[in-house]
Amino acid sequence: xxxxxxxxxxxxxxxxxxxxxxxxxxxxxxxxxxxxxxxxxxxxxxxxxxxxxxxxxxxxxxxxxxxxxxxxxxxxxxxxxxxxxxxxxxxxxxxxxxxxxxxxxxxxxxxxxxxxxxxxxxxxxxxxxxxxxxxxxxxxxxxxxxxxxxxxxxxxxxxxxxxxxxxxxxxxxxxxxxxxxxxxxxxxxxxxxxxxxxxxxxxxxxxxxxxxxxxxxxxxxxxxxxxxxxxxxxxxxxxxxxxxxxxxxxxxxxxxxxxxxxxxxxxxxxxxxxxxxxxxxxxxxxxxxxxxxxxxxxxxxxxxxxxxxxxxxxxxxxxxxxxxxxxxxxxxxxxxxxxxxxxxxxxxxxxxxxxxxxxxxxxxxxxxxx
Length: 370
What we know:
Elements: H1 2-33, H2 38-64, H3 70-103, H4 114-176, H5 179-195, H6 199-217, E1 224-226, H7 227-245, E2 249-254, E3 263-265, H8 270-281, E4 288-297, E5 300-307, H9 321-335, E6 340-345, E7 350-357, H10 363-369
Helix pairs in contact: 1-2, 1-4, 2-3, 2-4, 3-4, 4-9, 5-6, 6-7, 7-8
C-alpha cells in the first residue's frame, strides 16, 4: 500500500514540475522572440520527456536510502541530482542539434563547443532536480513516519492483547487455585460418611457437589456476573457444607434487593465463606454464625463476611493466607487501588471486608442475557 500510493504521488508531482518547467520556458521564449517555432516546441517536449525519465533514477536513489541516516540521504540525493542534470544537459545539446537539422536543414549549428553548452544546461537543470530531490526526501520522510506510526500502533495493540491474555490467565489461575481445596474437603467428608455407613448423607453430598460443579465450571473465570448469581453459587456450596456441619453452621445473608444486579468477579465470595467454615466452624462443636452483609457506600460496593468462631492474634488465621492473597490479587488486577480486601481478627471470630467499584450490566449485556 505504502509504495503504491507513494509512487503515484511522486509521479504526479514529477509530471507537474516538468510541465511547469516547460510552460515557463515556452512563455519566456515567446516573450523574448515573439514566436514559437516547431523546433522550440519539439525541444521542450523532448526535454520534459527525458527529464521525467531522469527523475525516475533520482526517485530510486531516495527510495533506496529512506532508512539511512539523514546525512547519507541528502548526500545521495545531491549526487543523483547532479548526475541527472549532467545527463539531461548533454542530451539537451545533442537533441537541439538533431532537431535543428530536422527543422532547419540549411541552418548553421552553434560554434560553441558541446561541452560548454552542456555545462550551461547542467546549471539550468540542477535547480529542477534539486527541487525534485527535496520533494522526494520530504515524501520519504512523511511515509516513513506513517509507516512507523502504524508499526507502533500494531505493537501497542499486540502488547495490549498480550497483557489482556496474561491477565485472563492470571485471573483463571487465581480462581482455580481455590477449587481443589474445597473438593478435597468435600470428598473427604463423603468418604467419612461412606465408612461410617451414612450412605444417604454421602449420596446427598455427592448430588449437591454435582450441582455445585455444574454451576461453577460453566462460569467464565474472567466474567463479571450479577451479585445474585454469585449468591446462588454460595447457596449451592453452603448446601454441601450444611450436610457436613448440620446445626453447627448458622447463616445470615443481608443483601438489599436493589444491589442484587450489581456486577462482581465470579467466584469471589466463596473463598471467604470457606475460610470462615474451615477456621470458625470446623474446630468447634458449638454453633457458629457466618454473616454475609452487602451494602453500598457512594460509588463502591462493600461486602462483609463475619463469623463468631474462634478469633486470632494475627491478620489472618493459620492456613487462610492463600485464599485471601488470591482475592487481593484478583481485585488488584481488575480494579487497581479501588479494589481492596481487609481481614481483621475480632475478639470473637473474624471479619473480612471487600470494597470494589459499583458496576452495573450494560444495555447490551442485558439484551444478550434476555
